[in-house]
Design brief:
The protein is an alpha+beta fold. Helix content is 46%, strand content 21%. It is built from eight helices and six strands; from the N terminus they run H-H-H-E-H-E-H-H-E-H-E-E-H-E. Strands 4-5-3-6 form a four-stranded antiparallel sheet.
Length: 233
């Protein structure tokens, strides 16, 4: 399945699950009991649990973090792991949480597994200060996109030269680089990440970029500006 087809199938599965949950109390437990018969059925159930984002059942809950650890974000997934794990054991029996990851020693995973928020906070704050991420700076993610890969690259180059001419104290420019999801909805995508120590300075740069795009006749949807982004994908 392509990424888009998988996402659509995932959404359909979640909608079906919500309908079943509303229609019949305790349906999750029936699914668990019905899938205990073979390893193949158990593996299928695990996949469904991942697809649905975790279910409050007494047997187990599986949270998989096997791919890119940061999911194109500057925010480690401690909160996601803690939230998903919190769904285990809500029934009559204690739950068990299994975290499968390529990074078992990562501080975010260890803090989530131990439910130690203070440990995560201290370590995360240290890295954020070192790398100039919020709350020690403000961010803006600039995405240049076009249905033509060549056009997207040309527009990115022109905007990049404009950004280089706008360099100011306390401002850091990362990029250009291909977006983590390089092609989305038939558009090829490149991005810049701007870090600034002052919000007013960042605003001046973004206004200048918008005016530059208008002056240079960028297509209306070619430049997307995301201030305080939650994701960098």
């Amino acid at each position: 399945l392509s990424t888009l087809e998988w996402a659509r199938q995932s959404r359909r599965e979640r909608l079906k699950m919500r309908q079943r949950r509303q229609a019949e109390h305790g349906h999750h437990r029936a699914i668990v009991s019905a899938n205990r018969s073979s390893p193949r059925d158990t593996e299928r159930l695990k996949q469904r649990l991942v697809l649905w984002g975790g279910i409050a059942i007494a047997v187990f809950l599986l949270a998989i973090l096997a791919g890119g650890f940061y999911w194109s974000s500057y925010q480690p997934p401690r909160r996601v792991v803690a939230q998903v794990a919190g769904r285990a054991g809500r029934g009559d029996l204690p739950g068990e949480v299994v975290i499968q990851t390529y990074y078992p020693d990562h501080y975010a995973i260890r803090a989530a597994a131990a439910q130690d928020y203070d440990l995560f906070y201290r370590q995360e704050l240290r890295y954020r200060k070192l790398l100039h991420y919020p709350p020690f700076s403000v961010l803006a993610n600039l995405v240049v996109k076009s249905p033509s890969a060549e056009t997207a690259l040309k527009l990115t180059g022109r905007l990049g030269r404009h950004l280089e001419a706008l360099q100011k104290p306390g401002v850091r420019l990362l990029g250009p680089a291909s977006a983590p999801i390089y092609r989305l909805k038939k558009d090829y995508r490149y991005q810049f990440l701007i870090k600034s120590s002052r919000r007013n300075t960042l605003r001046e740069i973004l206004v200048s970029c918008r005016e530059f795009a208008r002056r240079e006749n960028f297509p209306a949807a070619a430049l997307v500006i995301d201030v305080d982004p939650q994701s960098l994908s």
